[in-house]
Amino acid sequence: MKVEVFFTPGELAGQELPERVVVIDVLRATSTMVEALANGARSILPVATVDEAARIAQNIGRDTVLLCGERKALPIDGFDLGNSPAEFTAERVRGKSLVMTTTNGTRAFLAVAERRGGDGERRSKVLASSFLNLGAVVAELATAGAGGANGVTLVCAGREGRFALEDAVCAGAVVRGLEESGPALELNDGAIAARGLARRHMADLHRMLELTTAGRHLGDAGLGDNLSFCAQVGRSDVVPRFRERKLTLE
Amino acid sequence: MKVEVFFTPGELAGQELPERVVVIDVLRATSTMVEALANGARSILPVATVDEAARIAQNIGRDTVLLCGERKALPIDGFDLGNSPAEFTAERVRGKSLVMTTTNGTRAFLAVAERRGGDGERRSKVLASSFLNLGAVVAELATAGAGGANGVTLVCAGREGRFALEDAVCAGAVVRGLEESGPALELNDGAIAARGLARRHMADLHRMLELTTAGRHLGDAGLGDNLSFCAQVGRSDVVPRFRERKLTLE
User: Fold this and answer.
1) Chain B neighbors of A164, CB-CB under 8 A
2) CB spacing of A193 vs B192 below 8 angstroms
3) Which of B4, B11, B27, B207 to mutate to probe the A interface, most A CBs <10 Å?
4) Sign of torsion, CA A12 A13 A15 A19?
5) Predicted confidence band at A241 (pLDDT cuts at 50, 70, 90)?
6) How far apart are CA A136 and CA B200, in angstroms?
7) Residues of B in contact with A191 (CB under 8 A)
8) Which of B195, B142, B151 is nearest to B172 (CA)?
9) The Cα angle at residue A43 between residues A37 and A45, in degrees rounded to 5
10) Which residues of B touch A13 (CB under 8 A)?
11) Tens of pLDDT, residue by residue, chain B (250 residues)
12) What percent of chain B is predicted at pLDDT more than 90?
């Protein structure tokens, strides 16, 4: 099975995507998505801009919708929730439709969607991964792999178009999980590097997150608690799927 | 000292560059540049297209100019040399001006040049690194660092806009060299990852090169000899400098 890792959405340019794609934004979009859906949110719609989020929420009706997201790591004025996964408790999100706008994660999902036709999207499986649901993602990919699917592409959200260590380590952990669970893999350069980084950093994820640019910015913004939350490997067994512009557990 | 590594020229978008920049394209542009200048070539002008290379060679005069480069790893029809460093012997290149067009390396130098004004370029030091001149590059950066320069940015050429393992390992080896030779460094995510990859792969560079997409393509094209050539750490003590669009040893 062919496994490719790309460290920024920009690396997807000109790239053909296989049926199965995994999007990773550890700090914090995909961690938050996993936590929100695990806690009973109905769906999450990632959108590019704050204005678009507000307009959509107004159209759907403000009583069933929660607006959430961040700009420069901070909550957005007038929104219901920020982008810290710990905010997305069952009490806040159960039964709600979330409209979410974040800097990097949203962009990654939209970049993947853009590279597919309508038909492509219906057939494809685009999943969201973080450390929280690592085992569940590997299990889902490993099972599907046995059916002879044509490989997996892991897309790291990165940070403002650049490499982000935490996403690379998470991608590498998925690669390692797939290696342990099945036949030999054919890896691209990104996957080889990510695997090596996972070997190095999985033993102390919290320390690794503290070293990253994103982690340091969260600490500076008084949001350092996010690091220990997002470092919880296997907290959740849900695998969010992105389809028709929304993430759900269906 | 701040040390940043970017894995593709695309990651430079919106990035401010310090005075000192190092461009890395291990397979094969910067390896070839180092070998050619070490063997007495007067200068190397990297250009984007085959047509531009041919036009410039005609203007300067075909007797002092050598046309060199590759497309899809292979020599270009009507050119004097390809892009295998072993071709650039003293007999072929001494006293010659080289006009070179390659897929990834050229693009990286032009991306760096684009991010500078005329004044910026005159003040700046853009160097070419490969494994061949690794120690010389580290020595040059470490000396200048003592003068209080504002950091170093290492730009990997990558491969068709994507991450290339061999360039990342070389960048990481420079980071390690700087760490060993001076004060504590402030690293971005790319530099942390590159350093880890260098720790992992420097002990067997030839094996690492064989694993890479670029290395496998060279092998498939019958150019596998390039790997052992480009894996020679410290073969050369020259540090090519890119200024006014040309690489020289001045």
Assistant:
1) 189
2) no
3) B11
4) positive
5) very high
6) 29
7) none
8) B195
9) 120
10) 161
11) 899 999 999 999 988 899 899 999 999 999 999 999 999 999 999 999 999 999 998 898 888 899 999 998 888 999 999 999 999 999 999 999 999 999 899 889 989 988 875 545 556 899 999 999 999 999 999 987 655 567 999 999 999 999 999 999 999 999 999 999 888 899 999 999 999 999 999 999 999 999 999 999 999 999 999 999 999 999 999 999 999 899 999 8
12) 78
Q: Report the amino acid identity of residue B91.
A: E
Locate the domains of chain A by residue range.
2-241
Find tokens 């950091």 and name the residue.
B151
- From chain A, pick out residues whose CB is under 8 angstroms from the CB of B213: 188-189
Q: Chains A, B: CB contacts under 8 A, how many?
A: 77
Task: Enter the pTM of the model.
Answer: 0.95
Interface test with B, best of A8, A24, A107, A162 (most B CBs within 10 A): A162
Which residues on neighbouring strands pair with residue B241, listed in sequence order? B127, B248
For B2-237, CATH gives: 3.90.1560.10
Residues from chain A that touch B163, judged by Cβ atoms under 8 A, are: 6-7, 11, 163, 189-190, 193
Mean pLDDT computed over every residue of chain A: 93
> Cα B8–B28–A154 angle (5° rounding)?
35
Q: Of B56, B43, B57, which is closest to residue B95 (Cα–Cα)? A: B43
Quick one: closest CA in A to B201, which residue? A196
Tokens of A36: 């929100």
What the block records as the tokens of B58 is: 């005609």
CATH class, domain A2-241, is alpha beta
Please tell me if residue A203 touches chain B, with a CB cutoff of 8 Å. no
